[in-house]
Amino acid sequence: MVQLCVNGARTSADGAVVPLSPEAVADSVAEAVAAGATDVHVHPKTPCGRDTLSPRVLAATLEAIRARVPASVPVGVTTGAWAEPGPAARVARIRSWTALPDHASVNWHEPGAEEVAAALIERGVAVEAGIWSGTEGAALFRRSPLGPRVLRVLAEVTDPDPAAARDSAHALLARLGTAHGRPVLLHGEEGGAWPVLRLAGRLGLATRIGLEDTLRLPDGCRAASNAELVTAGTREWAAARRGHD
């Protein structure tokens, strides 16, 4: 599986290539799915470009995406603490959603992660457990009673150094252990995005790519679109997997 990470917490300061409005997001997702993405992770944005868990914005974003892509492509969103400070506020937002994503990511090192995950499960939204390197997320997740109930684990390597990201990835996977037997999606960011994606290929793990994680192609050139990143990502993952075999 190659998941598309559409826009992340990026803003207009990152360039016009980053889709922010529901319509721009839907266009970008449709192109990336046509290029081979099989799952979607998006950050709904307010009109001023800020991440939000607002039910109105979430519904508009989901509606726009689902009008453009097959129903077989799952669409997920963030529940990051920066989008709605305070665990109780995030839970309240989730309970107020009028349209539901297929899944939502929960960063396990953030305060209130268990409550946020439980609120999602109560609403029938699958949970992606975001486990960031350099945090206590892995240890907290190993002890979590909700661990066996998540859809998958997002092993998120936050080390942007391309020379060190692979080692950080191996260390994170070791700390995760069996990950409650759940599937693991391994990915990096910025300079570490492509080395970690190739490692995921060698290990046969799912991965993700998109403008949230990197603005650049493997050769260092600026990416023109999410579709261009997905095309490169599927090629790099497959080549790494063939090299392993």
Strand ordering within the main sheet:
7-6-5-4-3-2-1-8
Overall outline: globular
Give me the secondary-structure category: alpha/beta
Stretches where pLDDT is under 50 for at least 5 consecutive residues are none
Output mean pLDDT.
97
Helical region count? 8
Strand content: 5-15%
Protein name: 3-keto-5-aminohexanoate cleavage protein
InterPro entries: Aldolase_TIM (IPR013785), BKACE (IPR008567)
Pfam families: BKACE
Organism: Streptomyces violaceolatus
What features would you describe in this structure?
- The protein is an alpha/beta fold and 245 residues long.
- Helix content is 38%, strand content 15%.
- The protein has an eight-stranded parallel sheet.
- The longest helix has 19 residues, at 226-244.
- The mean pLDDT is 97.
Any key phrases for this structure?
38% helix; 245 residues; 8 helices; 8-stranded parallel beta sheet; 8 strands; alpha/beta; globular
